[in-house]
Amino acid sequence: MLATLKSLCDENRLRLFNILMHYELCVCEIEVLLGLSQSNVSRHLGILRNQKLISGAKDGQWVHYKVDERFSEENALLIAYLRQGFEREPVFVEDLEKCKVYKESNLSCQDITSDKGSVEAYIQTRVSGQTGKRI
């Protein structure tokens, strides 16, 4: 239990965990959605994966990550507690808004690889339009 809680004691890992509770995403998607570098995302994913909080499935050249089903089942109370907390914190709500816009857009990892800046701008514009503010 201690190792699990230690692995969640970082804002970026909590942000990752939050979006992976809702969506299956690859490193490049997480990079764009959370505004983190590839190496930072990979490092945090590694910590969560080593504690078996998340799992990944290879799809061609990409690995798509999500919250591990077994972890989720065995830690239902912790998941419920985190979910409630995430719903009250603006940064976590905004991250999910970005994910929703991205997933509804039908953009893909290939789009991010070919023109990351345009994908980021698209998401930013759509989220800003929905909330009436700039993120």
TrEMBL record:
PROSITE patterns: HTH_ARSR_2. It comes from Acidaminobacter hydrogenoformans DSM 2784. NCBIfam families: HTH_metalloreg. GO terms for molecular function: DNA binding; DNA-binding transcription factor activity. Keywords: DNA-binding, Transcription, Transcription regulation. It comes from the Bacteria. This is Transcriptional regulator, ArsR family. Residues 1-89 form the HTH arsR-type domain. Pfam families: HTH_5. InterPro entries: ArsR-like_HTH (IPR011991), HTH_ArsR_DNA-bd_dom (IPR001845), HTH_MetalResp_TranReg (IPR051081), WH-like_DNA-bd_sf (IPR036388), WH_DNA-bd_sf (IPR036390). CDD domains: HTH_ARSR (cd00090).
